[in-house]
Amino acid sequence: MKTIYILLTRTQSILSRTVRFMTHDTYTHAAIAFDEDMHVLYSSARWDGNNMFPCGPCREYLHKGFYARHKTPCAVYALQVEDDVYDRAKAEVAEIIANQQQYHFNIIGLMLCRMHIPFRRKTYFFCSQFVGEILHRSGALELPRDPCLIRPSDYTRLPQLKFRWQGYTSQVKRAFGGNLI
User: Fold this and answer.
1) What's the CA gap between 124 and 84, in Å, rounded?
2) What is the pLDDT of residue 114?
3) Which of 20, 55, 124, 155 has the most CB atoms around it within 10 Å of its CB?
4) Mean pLDDT, rounded, for 32-38
5) Distance (Å, whole) CA 23 – CA 70
6) CA-CA distance, 32 to 121, in Å (whole number)?
7) Which of 62-71, 106-115, 172-181 has the lowest average pLDDT?
8) Computed from CA positions of residues 116, 57, 133, 30, in that sequence, does the dihedral angle turn out positive or negative?
9) Which residues contact 152 (CB under 8 A, 6 or more apart)?
């Protein structure tokens, strides 16, 4: 058995503040990680931590970019999966990241998600949709609805995901010392 981690955050970016205002959700961003210290996270977000555009599927790092400049509340959830499922999830992410330039941020889908209107475009994702697609495609998790209708805070209510920790992104590594399980 291996563990897939979901990191939920709420930054002070314009988009995050807008999402929070519209949804009143505690968390406005979701990312997926495959290592205990969450050295590398994967999501659909800004490609450059300093600029809002361009954006789409990307790597994120807790120790640099937007996270490093701001005190960002977060929560960590863990999902135990079989080794082959873990490998499929990593392969799905690797395939998307390798072809990153073909993908885009699903801003229309993000707005329609709030209204519970599914909007899919083949190469477009918003953050929680990206995480949901990876979990769904790999067989790691059966979602209660289409990934394009999953919001970051929805992950807090999935019984298969086990809550591990809450705090700030700057504390993640110190809090666990690489020991999230």
Assistant:
1) 26
2) 83
3) 155
4) 91
5) 22
6) 21
7) 172-181
8) negative
9) 8, 9, 25, 27, 28, 29, 30, 127, 128
Token pair, residue 148, equals 């394009």
Tell me the pLDDT band of 63, cut-offs 50, 70 and 90: confident
* Predicted confidence (pLDDT) at residue 109 exceeds the cutoff of 70: yes
Q: What predicted TM-score, i.e. pTM, was given to this entire model?
A: 0.89
- Give the per-residue pLDDT at 180: 47
Distance CA 6, CA 162 (A): 10
Residues contacting residue 178 through CB under 8 Å, at least 6 positions apart: 36, 37
Quick one: fold of 2-176? endopeptidase fold (from Nostoc punctiforme) (3.90.1720)
Phi-psi region of 138 (alpha: psi -120 to 50; beta: other; left: phi over 0): alpha
**Structure-block tokens of residue 14:** 């314009």
Strand spans (E) along the chain: 2-9, 29-33, 41-48, 51-60, 73-81, 104-105, 124-125, 162-168
25, with CB counted inside 10 A (0-12, 13-18, 19+), is middle
- Domain locations in the chain as residue ranges: 2-176
Q: 7: number of CA atoms within 13 Å, CB side?
A: 33
